[in-house]
Amino acid sequence: MSPIKTRRDGAILEVTLDRPKANAIDLITSRKMGEVFAEFRDDPELRVAIVTGAGEKFFCPGWDLKAAADGDEVDGDYGVGGFGGLQELRDLNKPVIAAINGIACGGGLELALSADMILAAEHATFALPEIRSGTVADAASIKLPKRIPYHIAMELLLTGRWFDATEANRWGLVNEILPADQLLDRAWELARLLSSGPPLVYAAIKEVVRDAEDSKFQDAMNRITKRQLRAVDVLYGSEDQLEGAKAFAEKRDPVWKGK
Q1: Helices (H), the chain
Q2: Is residue 14 annotated as a catalytic residue, yes or no?
Q3: Other Cβ atoms closer than 10 A to 223
Q4: Of 73, 130, 213, 243, which is the active-site residue?
Q5: Of 110, 189, 207, 243, which residue is the catalytic one?
Q6: What's the pLDDT tens digit per position in 139-164?
Q7: Is 130 in the active site?
Q8: For the segment 73-85, what is each residue's pLDDT rounded down to a tens digit?
């Protein structure tokens, strides 16, 4: 039985991590997730992905320690997208929504941080407990201070304490908190909204954000204006860019083709 379930509806792909009992990720699962998300990235018909976990208790607790005890190497081959298939997947220029249906800790929280938006069920809880076992939450150490205030991120990294969805929302980590039975419906509602939007603009936004992360402001602006970023260059030479201008002038909804 595959540890990954997918559901495709139009331009939306739902990816569900389904590994009883806790949705922990081993090497095989990570590689499979990388394959799924790489296919999502490369499929021109798909525009938005949702990632969630099966059941009501766990989104993902991260690395499968039982698999590690049985021989899975911590520094083994996680696959094309790194741990969980998303963290290191290059050129993923499409929106990804994480729907946190329960516990998201360690690598599971790092997986959520790889999404562009995070929705959480009311009962969801979060932690980065690696510090307690003498290891480092490496991806979270990079990503979390970029998502929430630095001093809060450092507290969570240095203490490994648990926090709930309300606190996650207060610090801006979570976009919305929902009753558990409304979580996926809201994720799909948001995905449908995004899937109706301009995919080339989304691609340009994500590429600009990535490029600007380690750049001085003016250097990043220069690359945009000189069209040195591939997604930006494609956008400004596209049919969609012209369609957007025509639709605005004609006071109608644009029809996006992604080209």
Answers
A1: 27-42, 65-69, 107-113, 138-147, 150-159, 165-170, 183-195, 199-212, 217-225, 230-236, 239-249
A2: no
A3: 17
A4: 130
A5: 110
A6: 999 999 999 999 999 999 999 999 99
A7: yes
A8: 777 789 999 999 9
